[in-house]
Write a structure and sequence with these properties.
Distance between the termini: 40 Å
Largest sheet: none
CATH topology: Methane Monooxygenase Hydroxylase, Chain G, domain 1
Radius of gyration: 20 Å
CATH architecture: Up-down Bundle
Mean pLDDT: 91
Number of strands: 0
CATH class: Mainly Alpha
Low-confidence stretches: none
Helix content: over 70%
Number of domains: 1
Strand content: under 5%
């Protein structure tokens, strides 16, 4: 078997496993969107669907991780190919955690349906925060599909928006608890929902950092935005 044929096979394997990561990402994104729908419509049925989908996301992580190990052992990749496989390993771990956050929201929705929630609480603001997080995740997946560092940089620059939205929600919920102690229980539940949404944004950010690592060969985690911009340029 000649080297060209081996290279073509390896490229096909890389393409196949990358496509499965994108499939897993689409499923995780759908989970978050469904969890948001369950929250804003107090839909027990949709919350149950989110929890059921979690099993599929978990299974995909295990299967992709297994195939990654097999490819590394068989092909012994180097340079950018190895960085891509390392990034895929990090990506599926983050996507699995996105699914965990969606499931956490769904379980909270089930609890709120049973206990009730005040109409005065800022559920609509949670929806806005979730829309930001979903958009970030979608943008990261798009950047991964294209190995687009400029798109990945956009995700990193916009991460603060979700953090600011979370801080604002936290202040509102604390105010509600102080003004009406009867809302304390449901307000605390919504704080956990807001935190779960913020973490979805964090996982999108992690994926964006991994993309820059693949393309540029530089680990940009825990560095300044100025440094990241210099790397991407």
């Amino acid at each position: 078997m000649n080297d060209k044929h081996l290279s073509t096979q390896f490229d096909a394997e890389l393409s196949g496993i990358s496509n499965r990561v994108l499939e897993m990402g689409g499923l995780a994104e759908s989970q978050v969107a469904q969890a948001l729908y369950a929250l804003t419509h107090f839909s027990a049925e949709t919350a149950a669907q989110v929890l059921k989908q979690e099993e599929r996301v978990n299974l995909m992580e295990v299967e992709i991780d297994r195939d990654l190990s097999a490819i590394i052992a068989r092909r012994q990749p180097t340079a950018r190919d190895l960085r891509l496989l390392i990034a895929i390993s990090k990506a599926i771990a983050n996507l699995e955690r996105v699914g965990d956050e969606a499931a956490r929201i769904a379980r909270t929705v089930q609890r709120l349906i049973n206990t009730g929630v005040s109409s005065r609480l800022p559920v609509a603001d949670l929806a806005f925060e979730a829309d930001l997080a979903i958009a970030q995740l979608r943008k990261s997946l798009d950047a991964f599909a294209r190995l687009d560092t400029a798109r990945a940089l956009e995700v990193l620059k916009q991460d603060d928006q979700i953090d600011q939205e979370f801080d604002g929600l936290l202040r509102k919920l604390i105010t509600h608890m102080m003004e009406d102690p009867r809302t304390i229980s449901s307000s605390i539940d919504l704080v956990f929902v807001a935190k779960a949404i913020e973490r979805v944004g964090d996982h999108a950010k992690n994926l964006a950092e991994a993309i820059i690592y693949v393309v540029k060969g530089t680990d940009v985690r825990h560095t300044s935005m100025e440094n990241v911009e210099n790397v991407v340029r």
